[in-house]
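From the shared-data thread, chain only:
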Amino acid sequence: MERYDKATLNAAFAPEFRQNEGSLTSTLRTLLFFTALMITLPVGLYFSSKAYIFEGTLGMSNRDSYFYAAIVAVVTVHVVLAMFVYVAWSEGTRQWREGKQD
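Structure, as tokens:
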């Protein structure tokens, strides 16, 4: 049996670990970006569309503006989710293709 020291083992597994670490960092960064979008964008668009578009520009009542602003927020959530699925799918197929070429 051969004995391996730590330097030899680290040199053997370092490129694979670095590739996985980069992939994990990229995935985490994407997830955090879309999490921030999912929290801020629908809430921000809800209040801004309610105040500036529906009540301010269109002159709707307070009750009607709640309803239409909620629709804007729900549509925004669906758009952000669709964007996340597209980016995750593209990133996954890119990583799969890179793995197949090795």
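The mean pLDDT is 83.
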